[in-house]
Structures are given as C-alpha cells and as structure tokens.
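ARCHIVE CARD
CATEGORY: sequence design from structure
SOURCE FIELD: tokenized fold
FIELD CONTENT:
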C-alpha cells in the first residue's frame, strides 16, 4: 500500500523535482501535483512530465493532498505555509526538506497551528539547482532526518518514513536543535569555508583569476564545486541556523588561531598530531561505510 496517494510538491528545483521523479518511479500509483512560484519552472515541469498536474497557485495545489512537501529555500517556508493555510485538508501531513530545522518548524507551526507537521531533511544534494538538475535516484542510500515535534514515532511519522524509504533513503529521527548543530558542523560551516576560500583566492591581486582556475588541483577544486551552490538557498541556511553556525565558527576560529601559532613558531608536533588524528577520522568514516555520505555506500563498494 502507498504511504501517500496524493502528493503535492511546492518548489520544483533540485530537491522537489527529484522527489517528483522518485515518486513516479517508486510509487507509480501516487498522483503528484506540483506548484512553483516561478512560471518558467512550472512550464519546465509540465514539459518534463514529472508531475501529473501543475497548479497555478499554492492553495490550488494542496486542496486534494494527503502529503504536502515544501521544497523551497528555508527563508521562503513561512510565506508558502501562509499561502496554503486556507486550502490545506485537515487530514494532510505537511513536511519540508529544508537544510535547517528549528526555525523552519517554528515558521510552519506559526502559520499552520492545527496541521500535522513532520519536518524532514534529506541529506542528499548537489551544487546544481532547478528542475532540470533533479534525478530519481538522488536519495538512494542517503540519510533522511525527520524532526517530529515530540520526537515520537507517531502514525504520520511512520507514513513519512515509509515514503522516504520507498525513495531509497534511510530514515533517522532527531530533535531539531540537535539536527541543526550536527548539520552546522558537517554541512553548513564546510560550505561557508568553501565560499570564503574561493572568494579569498579570487580577491588576491597578485594571483590572476586565470591562474586560480589553471592550477586548481585537489582541495581547491573541491571547494570550487561546493562554492558553486545556490546563493539564495545558502544565504537562507546561514540566516536560519545562525546560533549553531556561530557556535561552530567560534570553535573553528580558535582552532585555526592555534594552527596559525603553531606554524609561526615552527611547532611541527602540534601540526603532525592534529593531522594524524584527522587522518584516523577519515579512515573511520570509510570503515563505517560512510564514504560519500551514503549509509551503505562503503559496503556496496566492498570497502
Ligand atoms: N540543494 C541541495 O543540495 C539540498 C537542498 N535542500 C533544501 O531543499 C530546499 C530546496 O533546495 P533546492 O531544490 O536545492 O533549491 P532550488 O533553487 O533548486 O529550487 C527551489 C525552488 O523553489 C521555488 N520557490 C522559491 N520560493 C518559492 C515560493 N515562495 N513559492 C513557491 N516556490 C518557490 C523556486 O522558484 C525554485 O524553483 C531548500 O530548503 C534547501 O535547504 C536539502 C537537501 C539538499
Ligand atoms: O553537494 C554537496 O556536497 C552537498 O553537501 C549537498 C547538500 C547540500 C545541502 C544539504 O542540506 C544537504 C546536502
């Protein structure tokens, strides 16, 4: 049996269009309705044929839904929730895919006081955006974190778990605050470091932009991929996970200052000890099958 028979997706960019494609593939009996504020995205979704219906307004998109998933930048979640409030069926489950959870839940709860809300975050993505960049297998072997209000495995949580498992994800429950701290360390601050170092390199007057591109090997090349991620999405993530990001940045700044001092004073032991410790962490990541962030990626690749 399908966990949800009528799925409405609002925001058909990388994540929303990947969910639409995944539902068509894994749950072909489910009806997918789409809405995006950008008319050109609506036209593209129609042309791609990844939804059964493309609505002209957020309200019209949700009238028949039993699951509504908001796939817009986290700063736009509140406005969308206000737009659907009047037309949302009483028995529908509302979820989202936002990269931060505490402020998004507060915004959804404020606009939809009586609704069943189960926030979610598929920890899967790329640096690309828009409806053409999505693909059905994006969530396969990836984590999807759900942050239900009381932390309990209630009936709507069980249904949403089944939905994400059908898309190939492995589901875990977490409190919104814990989610935001974990993701600040593992995703948000790393993105900020990438934006920052690529900006620093392009600002250097004695290094031309041509040289930055020409000699981009290894680490810097990886940073340029991450720093190509969507500016609106990431602006919203930092403004909405402010507390946890600032906490991690404070610790990072102290640690970088410690490394700065070690380099200045020729303290090789400090550098060597840290690099030895971090190398062991990377090996632990691979041993646990967590390479590529897929729960079963390592095992599938015989590591
Ligand atoms: N890109 C990634 O790798 C991941 C993103 N996320 C989260 O997923 C959400 C969507 O991200 P992407 O799909 O990457 O973004 P995207 O930029 O590819 O797509 C967002 C879509 O939302 C639409 N939109 C914006 N405001 C709207 C509004 N008020 N009403 C209706 N539509 C609106 C835009 O027109 C656009 O088509 C974000 O909250 C992001 O934090 C979660 C996991 C991974
Ligand atoms: O492309 C990458 O390296 C990512 O880190 C993708 C990503 C971006 C945002 C998320 O909330 C989850 C995953």
């Amino acid at each position: 049996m399908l966990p949800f028979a009528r799925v409405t997706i609002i925001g058909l960019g990388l994540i929303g269009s990947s969910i639409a494609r995944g539902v068509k593939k894994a749950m072909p009996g489910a009806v997918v309705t789409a809405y995006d504020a950008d008319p050109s995205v609506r036209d593209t979704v129609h042309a791609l044929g990844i939804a059964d219906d493309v609505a002209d307004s957020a309200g019209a998109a949700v009238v028949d839904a039993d699951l509504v998933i908001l796939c817009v930048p986290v700063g736009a979640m509140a406005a969308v929730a206000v737009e659907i409030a009047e037309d949302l069926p009483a028995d529908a489950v509302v979820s989202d895919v936002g990269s931060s959870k505490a402020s998004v839940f507060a915004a959804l709860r404020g606009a939809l006081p009586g609704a069943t809300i189960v926030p979610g975050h598929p920890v899967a993505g790329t640096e690309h955006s828009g409806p053409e960049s999505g693909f059905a297998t994006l969530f396969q072997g990836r984590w999807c974190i759900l942050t239900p209000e009381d932390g309990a495995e209630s009936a709507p949580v069980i249904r949403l778990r089944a939905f994400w498992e059908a898309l190939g994800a492995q589901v875990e429950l977490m409190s919104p605050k814990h989610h935001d701290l974990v993701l600040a360390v593992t995703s948000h601050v790393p993105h900020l470091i990438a934006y920052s170092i690529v900006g620093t390199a392009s600002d250097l007057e004695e290094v031309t932009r041509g040289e930055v591109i020409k000699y981009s090997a290894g680490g810097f090349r990886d940073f340029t991929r991450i720093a190509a991620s969507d500016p609106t999405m990431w602006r919203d993530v930092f403004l909405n996970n402010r507390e946890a990001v600032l906490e991690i940045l404070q610790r990072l700044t102290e640690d970088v200052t410690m490394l700065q001092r070690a380099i200045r004073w020729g303290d090789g032991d400090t550098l060597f000890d840290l690099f030895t410790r971090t190398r062991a962490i990377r090996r632990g990541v691979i041993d646990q099958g967590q390479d590529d962030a897929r729960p079963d990626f390592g095992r599938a690749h015989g590591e």
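CARD ANNOTATION: Residues 178-266 form a domain with the 6-phosphogluconate dehydrogenase C-terminal fold fold (CATH 1.10.3660.10). The chain has a mean pLDDT of 93.
SHELF: design records, drawer C
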